[in-house]
Amino acid sequence: MSSPLLSVRNLQKYFPTSRNVGFRKEKLQVKAVDGISFDLMKGETLGLVGESGCGKTTAGRTILKLIEPTAGEIIFEGQDITKLRPGLMTPLRAQMQIIFQDPFSALNPRQTVGKIIAAPFEIQKVTPEGGVKKEVAGLMQRVGLNPEHYNRYPHEFSGGQRQRIGIARAIALKPKLIVADEPVSALDVSIQAQVINLIDDLQKADGISIVFIAHDLSVVQHISDRVAVMYLGKIMELAKTEDLFTAPHHPYTTALLSAVPQPDPRGERNRERIILKGDLPSPINPPAGCVFNTRCWKVQEVCRSKTPELLTVGKSQVACHFPE
Amino acid sequence: MKNLLEIKDLKVTFPTDDGFVQAVDGVSISVAPGETVAIVGESGSGKTVTSLSVIGLHNRKVTQITGSILVKDKDESLDIVSAPLDKIRSYRGRVVSMIFQDPMSSLHPYYKIGSQLAEAYLVHHPGKKEEANKKALEMLSLVGIPEPQVRAKEYPHQFSGGMRQRVMIAMALMNDPAVLIADEPTTALDVTVQAQILQLLKDLQKNLNMGILLITHDLGVVAQVADRVHVMYAGRIVEQGNVDDIFYSPHAPYTLGLLKSVPRIGSRGSERLKAIPGQPPSLINLPIGCAFAPRCEYISLADENSCENLRPQLLGNSDSHKSRCHVPEEKRDKLFTAEIKGART
Amino acid sequence: MPRFILRRAYFATLTILLVSIVVYGVFSILPFDPAALTCGQKCTPAIVEANRVKLGFDKPLWQQYWLFLSGIFLGRTYGAGSAEFTCPAPSFGYSFNENMCVTDMLAEALPVTINLAIGAFVIWITVGVGLGLLAAKFRGRYPDTISSVFVLLGTSLPTFVTGLFFLIYVTIKWKIVPLSLEGFTPITESPVKYLQYFILPWLTLAILYAAFYTRFTRATVLETLGEDYIRTARAKGLSERVVLLKHTMRAALAPITTSAGLDIAGLIGGAIITESIFNLAGLGRMTLQAVYEFDLSVVVATTILAATVVITMNLIVDIAYGYLDPRVRMK
Question: Which of B36, B87, B151, C232 sits CB 3.0–4.6 Å from B212 for a disulfide?
Answer without folding.
Answer: B36
